[in-house]
Design goal:
The complex is a heterodimer of chains A (218) and B (99). Chain A has a domain at 3-152. In chain A, 76% of the residues lie in helices and 0% in strands. Chain A has eleven helices and no strands. The longest helix of chain A is centred in the middle third of the chain and has 29 residues, at 117-145. Chain B has 99 residues and is mainly α. In chain B, a hairpin with a 2-residue loop joins strand 1 (54-55) and strand 2. Classes of the chains: A mainly alpha (218), B mainly alpha (99). The interface between A and B is large, with 100 and 73 residues.
Chain lengths: 218, 99
């Protein structure tokens, strides 16, 4: 199917929209352009990157341990995505490093929405590479523009990020079981946000999803 | 700071890589795969909640709600992803401009 490349490039361009705001936030938080780019190239996980620069922006050098811990905690979900993608991709030896780096929300969401193993592989690689390219180019653009951009919320970029997650989960919501799972995770994340540290509500949402799936089968 | 950036990146990468090191016989089990699919849906749904309805660890409702409703409508109409995202951002930005 030729729909996969179109979807992949479309998602890459959309993530590019908020990569601009990441780049700008990075340099206004006090990172150099190089350090901001290193985050997009090496960390390559939006939520973790925003958390890292967010903590550094408010706490400076003294906050570095907290910044690293926040980024790490928000990255846990990529481990679950990797577990899901490992048998699909079947990467041998050292090439696992490549698939690991591209294992993010977008690549996993597009892959798991496909019907066959070969389409899952194409969905993963097309989306992973597309997002990587747009994410890094637009981070650079944002870092160069810096604080000329102003508050990303003025451009509705926070809404863009929320809508992107909705768009990624949308194809899976055709099943009533996944509708229930999605709703339960949504409610749990909101119910716990003010009582547990950042990063944990999303994991609790994932836990609820796993529990419903596990017990629903019995 | 450059060292901190690299350390944090390695910390995040460790999760991605660990998932690929679990032996095939565990992760290719259909039962496991169903749970992994459910977890993906759960993670993305939680992320909508956090990104769309919270500010600094407090639940808030603002222009992101109409933006998400618009996005849902456009997804229902099978509009391309980029159109959905750009429309949501534009609606949210317009609302903030006037209120």
């Amino acid at each position: 199917m030729n729909r996969i490349p179109v979807v992949a490039v479309s998602i890459g361009m959309a993530t590019g929209i908020y990569a601009v705001s990441f780049g700008a936030l990075g340099v206004t938080a006090g990172l150099s352009i190089l350090e901001t780019m290193l985050l997009s190239l090496l960390m390559f996980s939006g939520a973790s990157q925003f958390a890292f620069v967010g903590v550094v922006a408010t706490g400076g050098m003294a906050a570095i341990p907290t910044a690293i811990a926040s980024a790490w905690l928000l990255g846990v979900r990529n481990g679950f995505y990797a577990l899901r993608m490992a048998p699909v991709l079947g990467m041998p030896g050292i090439s696992k490093l490549l698939s690991a780096q591209l294992t993010i929300d977008e690549s996993t969401a597009v892959a798991t929405a496909q019907g066959s193993q070969s389409d899952e592989q194409r969905g993963f690689w097309w989306t992973g590479v597309s997002v990587f390219i747009f994410w890094n180019l637009m981070t650079l653009a944002g870092a160069l523009l810096g604080d000329q951009i102003g508050d990303p919320a003025n451009y509705g970029l926070d809404s863009a990020a929320a809508a992107a997650f909705l768009g990624l989960v949308w194809p899976r919501l055709s099943s009533s079981k996944f509708k229930l799972i999605g709703l339960a995770a949504f409610v749990v994340a909101l119910a716990t946000i003010s009582i547990v540290p950042a990063g944990i509500p999303v994991l609790l949402g994932a836990l609820v999803a796993a529990v419903i799936q596990y017990w629903g089968k019995r | 700071m450059t060292f901190a950036v690299i350390a944090a990146s390695l910390a995040v990468f460790s999760w991605k890589f660990l998932g690929y090191l679990v032996p095939e016989k565990y992760v290719s089990n259909p039962r496991f795969r169903e749970i992994a699919d459910a977890i993906t849906v759960g993670l993305l749904s939680s992320l909508i909640a956090i990104q769309g309805f919270t500010t600094d660890s407090a639940v808030t409702v603002d222009s992101r709600l109409p933006a998400l409703i618009l996005a849902a409508g456009l997804l229902y109409l099978r509009m391309p992803f980029i159109v959905v995202i750009a429309s949501a951002a534009a609606l949210s930005a317009l609302i903030r401009m006037f209120f």
